[in-house]
Here is the input.
Amino acid sequence: GVVPESAASAVDENGKIAITLPSEQAVAESGQFDPSAHIITSKSDKYSELTLKTANSFLCVNIPASDENTYKSITLTSLGGENIAGTVLYDPEKCTYTDVDGMSKSVTITGEFAAGSSCFISLLPCTLSKGFKLIATDADGVQYKLSYPNSVTFQRNYYYEIDAEWDNRLYTLNVLKNVLSSFNTIIGEPVLVSKAIPIIFISIIFIPL
Here is the structure.
């Protein structure tokens, strides 16, 4: 089985499941993630033991307490062109998948991301050979970018953290008309926490009454 049910669309003769990790994710509050993007597979055996496995990975973006902005959206994009969202054929035994349809190299989360908050972006487990970039957009349409240009492997069932020390500001055309000039460069390279923390791997044993 799959939770949420809306993430699964079909099962083939080999037991592989077509699951969809959305490229657009809505986050209700700080420290949370879009429930539709946290995909869990389940399996029970003849002894009524149910095993649950998280199929996706997460990137946790920490907004510094000193940040004066509130962001409406944050977009994660692979720099090497790897797909990080879409519909895949997932093997719950081997925890591997193949791309199927609607693949995307970016994932965007929307919500209210203020100073001191953390937000989780769900993505397919993969290696991003050239790293990734983040673009955060505030209420005025001003965009802020962070690049992590190093190879990184996002493992299933783990999340990774990065502090949002933005490299520079980007501006959409309609905002440029109202901005005289501003370009802020942060010296130093962003650090991605290399020690991943397990999200969920639960084995539940049901005892008949």
In short: Confidence is low (pLDDT under 50) at residues 174-190, 194-209. DSSP finds one helix and 20 strands in the chain.
